[in-house]
C-alpha cells in the first residue's frame, strides 16, 4: 500500500508540475499555443490530418506560383495546414520548440507581427524566385513553379531570425549562422519550394528583426573578429560541404542546383524490386543483376561506406574547430581528391558516359547548373588552402605514428577475420568463396562502394552471418579510425619544457601568490609563463578547455597583462580559457574583457595575530580542545617524508576508510590527496593519542607573499570513523593557535565548491539562472561530498568569507567546461561510481 500511495503521490506531483509548465507557457507564449490549438482544430474540421488538404480547399490554403494572385489569402492561410499527419506533428514540435522561445524573446505582439510578416514575405520571395530561376537553372525552376507549400515552417524560421535581434551579440551571431547555414544548405541541395520559402522568410526576419526592437538594421563589418571564430567558420563550411550531398542523397526528390553532388560523391541510387526483376530477366546481364541484388540488400553499412569521404570530412571539421594542423592537412587532401573525382565524373558524363552510368543530371541543359557542383568543392579546397595559418595546433609527438600503427593493426586483424571467416562459411557466398577470391575481394571491403556499378563484386553473401562479415569489417575499421582521429584532436598540446614545475616553484616562492597558488605545483598542470618572466598561469587542458588553477602567480601590478596574454595564448592553441577559483581581482579584469562569471566556491580565512577562542561563539571549539586534553589526544606537526611508517600507514588506512565509506572516488584538481601530501613543503598536523593511534590528519599548504611564507591553507582533512569525534575541530583550532605563535598572519580553510555563505541565510529571490542551477547542483551533490556541510562546519571558526569565481567566455562554452571540470575533479571515476553519483543526485532531486 505504501508503494501505491508513493506512486500516486509522484503521479500527482508530476501532473502538478506539468500543469505549472503549461500555465507558464500560456503566460509566456499565448500566440504560439493558440496557433497550435488552431492548427489542429482546422485540420480536424477540414479532415486533412491524414492526407493534407485537397481540392478545392488546396487552392486557398497552399501557396505556389500558380495560386497567386488569384488565391492571395493563401499567403497567410498556408501556415495553418500541413501535408499530412507527419506534417502536423512536425509543425507542432517545431512551434513548441522554436515558437515558444521566439515569442519569449520578442513578446507576443512583436512575435505575431514577425510571424505574419515573414510568412507573407517568404511566400512572395519564393514565388518570385521560382519565376526567374528557370532562366539560370532550368529544371530546378520548373520544379519550383510546379510545387506548392503548406505548413508553419516558414514563419517559424522567420520569427527565429527576427528574435535573434534581441539576443546578445555572440548568441545572435551563432544563432543566425546556424539557422542560415541550415536553410541555405537545404535550399541548394534539396531545393524544394518549402526550403526556398523558409529561407526567404528567415532573410526577411533577419533584416526586419532589429526594427522590432527599435534599431536600424546594419550589416556587420567583420564576420569573425578572432582566430577562434574564424576556425569555427571554416569548420562549418567543411561540415556543410560534407553534409549537403548526404542530405540530397537521403531525399529522392531533391532538385536543388547542388543535388547532383549525390551522384558525384555518394552511392545512393536505390534499385527497386521491379527494376531488379526486369534487369535479371535480361540475358547476358548476370553481373549487373548480382550487383543490383547487393544494392537492394545493402543497408546502413553500405550507405556508411558510400558516404565515407563525407564522414571523414565531418571528423576533420571537429579538428579544424580546434585548430589542429593535421585535420587541416587531411581535409585539404581529401577535398582535393573529391574535387578531382568530381571533375573526372563530369568529364565522363560530357564525353558520352562510356561506362553506362545512370546519372540523372536533370538540370544540365544550363551551363551554370553543371558548373556549380564542380565549383563548390573547388571553393572549399581554396578556402582551406587560404586559411592554413589558422591551424597551427600540433598533437604530441608520435600521435599519428601510433594512430597509423593502431589502424594498420586493426585492418590486419579484420582482414584476417574476413578471409578466415569467409573461407569457413564459403558455401554462404555466391560463387563459393575461395581464399584467392576472398583476398582479391578484400580491398573492396575497406573502400567506398562508389564504383560498384562499374566493377561488379566477385563475391556476394547469401546468408545474414555472411552479410554481416561482408559489410561489417569495413565499417568496424573506419569507425575505429574515426574514433582514433577524434581522440587525437582532444590530446592536449605537449608540454615542451619538463622543467616548468621547478621554474613555477621558484616564481611562486619569490614573487608570491594567492592562498590556492601552491596547488599550481601539483601533477597534471601545464604552465604558461608571461613574457616578463615574473608571472605564470597553471592550467589543465581537457575537452578543448584550458582550466586554470586559481589566480595568476606573480606581481599584482602585471596581472592585467598576464590575463590578456593567456587569453591570446588560448586563442592561438584553439582552446577555451576558463579562469577557475579566482578572486574578485581577476573576475573584475575578465568581466571588462566580456567574460561572464559565476561564484563557484566560498573561501574562509582566519586572521591570526590576536586570535583567541573566547566567548560563546567559540564554545564548540573550546569543548573540543578540552575533550582532547582529557582523552590524551594531542596535535603533532610532521611531514609525510619524516613521519614514522606507523603514522603513514595509519594515514593511508584513514583515507581508504573514508573512500570506502563514501563509495565515491577521491576528488582531485583543487582538492589534494595523499600524493599531494608527499611534498616536503606541505605540513601535516595529526591528532594522535598516547598509544600512537592517529585519530585525524590535516595537511597545510604554504602561502608565499613577498618571498616569505605568510600563511597556510588547509587541504587534506580526514578523521578515523571510530576515533576522537571532534578531531577536525581540535586539529584546525590547534593549527590556528600554533601557527599564530609561529608568527604567521593568516590561515585559509580553503574553498568549499558549490557552497556559499548566503545559502545558510536563505535563497535570494529570483536568482540568475546559472546561479540557481549551481544552487540546485550543490544541493543535489550534498549527500555525495557534503560541500555545504563543510562550509557550515568552518563557520564555527568565525572566518572571513571570500568568494571564488569561475570566469568563462560565454554560456555556449559551459558544456565543454563542465566536462573539463568533471575530468579534472574526477579523473579516475569508474562506471559504478559514476552510476552511484547519478543515483544519489536523482534521489536528492526527488
From TrEMBL:
Start and end residues of each Phosphatidylglycerol lysyltransferase C-terminal domain: 506-808
Protein name: DUF2156 domain-containing protein
Location of the protein in the cell: Cell membrane
Cross-referenced InterPro entries: Acyl_CoA_acyltransferase (IPR016181), LPG_synthase_C (IPR024320), PG_lysyltransferase (IPR051211), Rhomboid-like_sf (IPR035952)
Pfam families: LPG_synthase_C
Keyword line: Cell membrane, Membrane, Transmembrane, Transmembrane helix
Family matches, as SUPFAM superfamilies: Acyl-CoA N-acyltransferases (Nat), Rhomboid-like
Amino acid at each position: 500500500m505504501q508503494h501505491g500511495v508513493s506512486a500516486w503521490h509522484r503521479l500527482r506531483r508530476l501532473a502538478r508540475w506539468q500543469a505549472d509548465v503549461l500555465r507558464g507557457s500560456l503566460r509566456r507564449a499565448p500566440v504560439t499555443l493558440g496557433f497550435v490549438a488552431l492548427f489542429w482544430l482546422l485540420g480536424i474540421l477540414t479532415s486533412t490530418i491524414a492526407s493534407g488538404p485537397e481540392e478545392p480547399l488546396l487552392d486557398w490554403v497552399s501557396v505556389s506560383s500558380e495560386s497567386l494572385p488569384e488565391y492571395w489569402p493563401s499567403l497567410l492561410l498556408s501556415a495553418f495546414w500541413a501535408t499530412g499527419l507527419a506534417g502536423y506533428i512536425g509543425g507542432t514540435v517545431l512551434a513548441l520548440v522554436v515558437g515558444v522561445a521566439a515569442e519569449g524573446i520578442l513578446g507576443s505582439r512583436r512575435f505575431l507581427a514577425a510571424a505574419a510578416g515573414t510568412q507573407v514575405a517568404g511566400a512572395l520571395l519564393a514565388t518570385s524566385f521560382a519565376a526567374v530561376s528557370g532562366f539560370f537553372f532550368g529544371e530546378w525552376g520548373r520544379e519550383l513553379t510546379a510545387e506548392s507549400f503548406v505548413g508553419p515552417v516558414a514563419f517559424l524560421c522567420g520569427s527565429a531570425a527576427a528574435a535573434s535581434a534581441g539576443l546578445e551579440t555572440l548568441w545572435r551571431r551563432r544563432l543566425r549562422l546556424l539557422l542560415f547555414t541550415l536553410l541555405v544548405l537545404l535550399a541548394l541541395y534539396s531545393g524544394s519550394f518549402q526550403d526556398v520559402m523558409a529561407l526567404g522568410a528567415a532573410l526577411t526576419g533577419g533584416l526586419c528583426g532589429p526594427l522590432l526592437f527599435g534599431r536600424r538594421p546594419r550589416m556587420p563589418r567583420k564576420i569573425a573578429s578572432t582566430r577562434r571564430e574564424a576556425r569555427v567558420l571554416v569548420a562549418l563550411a567543411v561540415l556543410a560541404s560534407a553534409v549537403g550531398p548526404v542530405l540530397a542523397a537521403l531525399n529522392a526528390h531533391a532538385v536543388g542546383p547542388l543535388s547532383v553532388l549525390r551522384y558525384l560523391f555518394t552511392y545512393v541510387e536505390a534499385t527497386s524490386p521491379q527494376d531488379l526483376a526486369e534487369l535479371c530477366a535480361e540475358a547476358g546481364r548476370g553481373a549487373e543483376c548480382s550487383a543490383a541484388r547487393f544494392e537492394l540488400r545493402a543497408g546502413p553499412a553500405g550507405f556508411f561506406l558510400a558516404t565515407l569521404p563525407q564522414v571523414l570530412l565531418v571528423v576533420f571539421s571537429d579538428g579544424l574547430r580546434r585548430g589542429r594542423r593535421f585535420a587541416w592537412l587531411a581535409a585539404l587532401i581529401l577535398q582535393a581528391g573529391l574535387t578531382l573525382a568530381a571533375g573526372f565524373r563530369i568529364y565522363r558524363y560530357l564525353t558520352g558516359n562510356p561506362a553506362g552510368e545512370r546519372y540523372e543530371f536533370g538540370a544540365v541543359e544550363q551551363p551554370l547548373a553543371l558548373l556549380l557542383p564542380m565549383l563548390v568543392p573547388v571553393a572549399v579546397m581554396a578556402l582551406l588552402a587560404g586559411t592554413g595559418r589558422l591551424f597551427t595546433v600540433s598533437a604530441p609527438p608520435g600521435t599519428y605514428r601510433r594512430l597509423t600503427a593502431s589502424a594498420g593493426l586493426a585492418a590486419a586483424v579484420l582482414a584476417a577475420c574476413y578471409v578466415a571467416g569467409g573461407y569457413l562459411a564459403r558455401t554462404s557466398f555466391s560463387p563459393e568463396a575461395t581464399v584467392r577470391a576472398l583476398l582479391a575481394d578484400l580491398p573492396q571491403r575497406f573502400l567506398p562502394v562508389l564504383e560498384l556499378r562499374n566493377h561488379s563484386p566477385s563475391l556476394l553473401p547469401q546468408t545474414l552471418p555472411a552479410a554481416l562479415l561482408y559489410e561489417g569489417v569495413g565499417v568496424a575499421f573506419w569507425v575505429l579510425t574515426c574514433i582514433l582521429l577524434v581522440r587525437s584532436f582532444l590530446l592536449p598540446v605537449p608540454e615542451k619544457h619538463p622543467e616548468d614545475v621547478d621554474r613555477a616553484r621558484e616564481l611562486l616562492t619569490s614573487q608570491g601568490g594567492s592562498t590556492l597558488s601552491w596547488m599550481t605545483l601539483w601533477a597534471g598542470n601545464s604552465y604558461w609563463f608571461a613574457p616578463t618572466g615574473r608571472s605564470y598561469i597553471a592550467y589543465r587542458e581537457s575537452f578543448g578547455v584550458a582550466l586554470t588553477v586559481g589566480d595568476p602567480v606573480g606581481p599584482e601590478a602585471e596581472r592585467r597583462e598576464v590575463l590578456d596574454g593567456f587569453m591570446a595564448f588560448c586563442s592561438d592553441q584553439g582552446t577555451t580559457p576558463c579562469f577557475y577559483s579566482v578572486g574578485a581581482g581577476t573576475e573584475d579584469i575578465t568581466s571588462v574583457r566580456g567574460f561572464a562569471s559565476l561564484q563557484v566556491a566560498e573561501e574562509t580565512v582566519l586572521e591570526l595575530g590576536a586570535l583567541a577562542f573566547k566567548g560563546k561563539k567559540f564554545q564548540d571549539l573550546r569543548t573540543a580542545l578540552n575533550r582532547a586534553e582529557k582523552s590524551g589526544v594531542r596535535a603533532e606537526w610532521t611531514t609525510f617524508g619524516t613521519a614514522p611508517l606507523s603514522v603513514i600507514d595509519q594515514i593511508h588506512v584513514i583515507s581508504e576508510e573514508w573512500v570506502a565509506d563514501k563509495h565515491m572516488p577521491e576528488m582531485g584538481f583543487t582538492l589534494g590527496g595523499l600524493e599531494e601530501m608527499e611534498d616536503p613543503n606541505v605540513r601535516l598536523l595529526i591528532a594522535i593519542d598516547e598509544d600512537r593511534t592517529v585519530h585525524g590528519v590535516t595537511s597545510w599548504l604554504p602561502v608565499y607573499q613577498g618571498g616569505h611564507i605568510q600563511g597556510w591553507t588547509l587541504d587534506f582533512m580526514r578523521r578515523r570513523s571510530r576515533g576522537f569525534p571532534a578531531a577536525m575541530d581540535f586539529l584546525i583550532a590547534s593549527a590556528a593557535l600554533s601557527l599564530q605563535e609561529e608568527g604567521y598572519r593568516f590561515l585559509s580553510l580553503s574553498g568549499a565548491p558549490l557552497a556559499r555563505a548566503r545559502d545558510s541565510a536563505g535563497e535570494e529571490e529570483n536568482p540568475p539562472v546559472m546561479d540557481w542551477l549551481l544552487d540546485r547542483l550543490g544541493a543535489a551533490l550534498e549527500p555525495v561530498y557534503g560541500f555545504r556541510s563543510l562550509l557550515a562546519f568552518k563557520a564555527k571558526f568565525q572566518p572571513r568569507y571570500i568568494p571564488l569565481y569561475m570566469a568563462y567566455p560565454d554560456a555556449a562554452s559551459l558544456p565543454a567546461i563542465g566536462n573539463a571540470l568533471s575530468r579534472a575533479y574526477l579523473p579516475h571515476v569508474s562506471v559504478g561510481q559514476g552510476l552511484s553519483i547519478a543515483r544519489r543526485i536523482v534521489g536528492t532531486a526527488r
